[in-house]
Amino acid sequence: MTANPRAHSFNSAAAQYEASRPSYPPELFDFVEEFLCRSLAGVRVADVGAGTGIATSLLYERGADVIAVEPGEAMAAQFRRALPDVPIIRGDGNALPLAGSSRDLITYAQSWQWTDTSRSVPEALRVLRPGGALAIWWNTTAFDVPWIRAQHERIAHHCEVPPRPAGRPDDDEAIRLAGLTGLRVARRHIRWRRTVALDTHLANISSRSAFLVLDQAVNRAFLAEERERLHETFPEGMVEETYVVDLLVAARP
User: Fold this and answer.
1) How far apart (Å, rounded) are the C-alpha atoms in residues 191 and 209?
2) Contact (CB, 8 A) for 143 and 137
3) CB-based burial of residue 3 (10 Å sphere; 0-12 exposed, 13-18 middle, 19+ buried)?
């Protein structure tokens, strides 16, 4: 959705992304329904930056009339294989290929950060019907879990990026950073877990954009070391991952 090469790096690992990335907990969609004051069944949804369809599939399962918008060719191809009955169109969150006032809900799962909010917010408001909502969310790091915090710091060092602060921005700051100032916004943190094979956990790590733009030989060496560390913590080869979904839902004025 931007010229940032990291935003388009996922196309090189679309199948890996589909197989290893975490999904989202039911409570996320329960809260969106609460905000909308209606079930998602029959709601006209655009899932933007849909990737391989991880969030789209959950919206579809709830009966939403959902269309996906995805800029990446390989990600869109993987989406079509996974969800052949759900329409997907190539497009950019900064210039949505959708008619005005045509959707009840627009969602961005793990993708809002790739947009220019000076453009994507007005675009979302243009496409939403009166009474509609924009929902954006991320699976974020559970920093209170010691092994997860330590791994996050190792990954940041490997990728030569600053580690994220353990604290989270307050609601006003989160709303400002998301470009949603001036709208009626509700925020929720939803904690959840999944247990996956060690190989899946490592594949998830290496499907991140900060990894995908690095030399793959260097990445393989890092992941081999990480495998040894994790095997000490999870000797049976199954890793319990903890996430905190950071969810913001904004109402169309």
Assistant:
1) 23
2) no
3) exposed
Structural domains in the chain plus CATH codes: 5-141+167-192+243-251 (3.40.50.150)
Name 110's Cβ contacts closer than 8 Å, sequence gap at least 6. 49, 51, 55, 137, 138, 139
At 40-96, the pLDDT tens digits run 999 999 999 999 999 999 999 999 999 999 999 989 999 999 999 999 999 989 999
Q: Are strands 44-48 and 103-109 parallel, antiparallel or unpaired?
A: parallel
Asked if 14 and 43 touch (Cβ cutoff 8 Å), the reply is no
d(CA 151, CA 217): 20
3-state secondary structure of 147: helix
- Would you say the C-alpha torsion 103, 105, 111, 117 has a positive or negative sign? positive
Instruction: Give the three-class secondary structure for 162.
Output: coil
Instruction: List, in order, residues 6 or more apart from 171 with CB less than 8 Å away.
Output: 185, 187
Q: How far apart are CA 227 and CA 201, in angstroms?
A: 10
- How many Å apart are CA 222 and CA 47, to the nearest integer? 34
- In whole angstroms, give the CA distance from residue 112 to residue 89: 18
CB 241 within 8 A of CB 201: yes
Distance CA 32, CA 135 (A): 7
Question: Is the per-residue pLDDT at 234 higher than 90?
Answer: yes
| Token output for 167 | 């604290």
